[in-house]
Fold Mitochondrial tRNA methylthiotransferase CDK5RAP1.
Amino acid sequence: MHPLQCVLQTQRWGPLASVSWLLLRTCRAHSNVPSTACPSLERQQEDGVRKDFSSRLASGPTFQHFLRSASAPQEKPDMEDPPPYLTVDELLGRQRKVYLETYGCQMNVNDTEIAWSILQKSGYLRTRNLQEADVILLVTCSIREKAEQTIWNRLHQLKALKTKRLRSRVPLRIGILGCMAERLKEEILNREKMVDILAGPDAYRDLPRLLAVAESGQQAANVLLSLDETYADVMPVQTSPSATSAFVSIMRGCDNMCSYCIVPFTRGRERSRPVASILEEVRKLSEQGLKEVTLLGQNVNSFRDSSEVQFNNAVSTNLSRGFSTNYKPKQGGLRFAHLLDQVSRVDPEMRIRFTSPHPKDFPDEVLQLIHERDNICKQIHLPAQSGSSRVLEAMRRGYSREAYVELIHHIRESIPGVSLSSDFIAGFCGETEDDHLQTVSLLREVQYNMGFLFAYSMRQKTRAYHRLKDDVPEEVKLRRLEELITVFREEATKANMASVGCTQLVLVEGHSKRSATDLCGRNDGNLKVIFPDVEMEDVNNSEVKVRAQPGDYVLVKITSTSSQTLKGHVLCRTTLKDSSAYC
């Protein structure tokens, strides 16, 4: 019999779409205490707690109970009504200290804030000192093999910390959250016995319960994906109190099923938050004084809020010209243009960005809105992935090179001065040298301002893993990647040179990491701008000299550029509204 025991939760603690399951292993399996050690009174008490937990677990819900409850109305876990094998007190953090580490994309940053919000309400405390942590949680990424290897290496480092834990302190618990937990599931628990809990991207509400189970000496996991979880009612807690910007998750999952991508298998199907909950979060961030929000989603511009019946009409989603989808057209709901319009009205002095979009979801109404609103940044991320139509077809991207280039021209005509960024993959399955050169030529033709380039990493479960062959040698992938990076930097430097002599609005983030006498911030195109920390005029009070602070808008005249950074001298402090007369 497999040593892992599966326990199905009642409907109260997880609907069929996100049924919560536990992987349980006895404490002896990962205890550092020799079996011959004489038990102390404290150990006897711990054994009593485990026996009590086991007896309560045995009397808990059965599989038949779960089947009878499967059609019950969906409800969120309630601290007032814990599962049968736990008490309310056991679900509380009791001021244990949590240390959070975040790896990967912006969605993981937002997930960290969601997870911490849930734990904070359960009575846990946050620490930034690893040595004093009682719980260490790693929010992980699975997009490439290198990202996962980073976590395995980190676990080896943490193993020593857990081994040296003083017996006078509560046991150290280590958890893996996010996409890596979702992809590998029990493989992590089998490979690393020192991992106590796993929580997939849709299971953060379950963290108090998982940690309570771990306190009994068991391993616990919930990695089931949900069809409806968006954490719409969870207000993320900002992890950086001095931050000037924040991420706001508006949708989760992805339906595109690109052949190389693991995201649909680690984050599930697309589902969007209700517009009202998003606007409420943005208003609260504005009240806190934040000056920039980035709307987040794996396919952010395919947003479709279908929570309100009156908007579920038969109108199909509008796509960019020449683009197609791998799924049936979606109908009804409030679309991304509506959300973008409403968010931009919350605070005219708050910048709005969004990422990561798919090129297929840029209808004219979205482009027109970006052009018209001063506080919607004139910057668009447009992932190409390849410049070869043949490779794009193998990737199942839903467009040709020609359609993509036509969209680039249309965007630049619709939004003069727009800043463009993109993603590219070097060495995808079957990529020839000619395919690679077509990608090089696309980089030269478009001249992106920013780029994110990677060598292809085959991921299990993807369509490419099952149907294609990873036949480009590693050394060829790396050589092609270096060539793409070189060309990108050359062209980005040329594109950024157009900014020299221009005055740009910059949102100040703080001091430059390389110089205490310089400040840094970002312009409308999301490029980093460095300028001296000196006194300046305020447009609203020219008689007073001020120094820029994080969260201030300043006008900077650009004097030099590189592929990634602009430099200049500051002119004055201003507002987003007043800056339009100068930029």
